[in-house]
Amino acid sequence: MGKVYERLDDRLRAFISTQPVFFVATAPERGGHVNVSPKGYADTFAVLDDMTVAYLDLDGSGVETIAHLRENGRITIMFAAFSGPPKILRLYGRGRVVVPADEEFGRLLERFGPHPGVRCVIVVDCDRIADSCGYAVPFMKYEDDRSLLDDWAQRKDVQQRRNYRARNNRESVDGIPGLRPEETDPVAHHS
Q: Number of folded domains in the chain?
């Protein structure tokens, strides 16, 4: 039923490009809460090469992924087909957080569509690429992206976003450091 792949070939890249949602899972090193986050906006995910992917991390209510990656780097990204043939694809690997102050940030940002409220880019070096059946995944019809997150970010001025990030994005629910004080300042980066 399932298969392990040596790389992200053209067929897997095509599958990824047609999925309107993906899921990101991370966990603290010891104990704590496992986090699974759904991510939308198809233009926020990019395959960088045969073993590396990245996604645009936008302002949000928490900072679990950033905190967990900085603590231990472990991450799994999952795509599930809600239409067409049943398929689940998981990308296991080591993730890293690329913030606006990092040299590669600007180059990475060019890979994504325009979105306000960019916190960072998450880059994942895959060490296992595997699919499995999606026989129990229901058929669902994609209608459209919700614009609410982008709309929210556009309504906030710099000070409001700075305050929001300082209040909600400094540490995970388990107290693991997330964004550092200098990283909560929403600089003029818009993908």
A: 1
* DSSP 8-state assignment for residue 162: H
- Is residue 191 a part of any domain in this protein? no
For residue 123, give the CATH number of its domain.
Answer: 2.30.110.10
Supply 158's token pair.
């710099």
Is residue 189 a part of any domain in this protein? no
Q: With 0-12 CB in 10 A as exposed, 13-18 as middle and 19+ as buried, what is 145? A: middle
Whether the CB-CB separation of 63 and 46 falls below 8 Å is answered with no
How many other C-beta atoms lie within 10 A of the C-beta of residue 150?
17
Structure-token match 């700075």, residue found: 162
Alpha helices in 47-136 (DSSP H): 64-72, 105-109
Please answer whether residues 164 and 184 qualify as being in contact, where contact means their C-beta atoms are separated by less than 8 angstroms.
no
134 in a domain, yes or no? Answer: yes
pLDDT digits (tens, 9 = 90+) for 26-78: 999 999 999 999 999 989 999 999 999 999 999 988 999 999 999 999 999 99
90, part of any domain: yes
Q: What is the pTM of this model?
A: 0.94
Range of the domain at 9: 3-183
Q: Which amino acid is at 163?
A: N
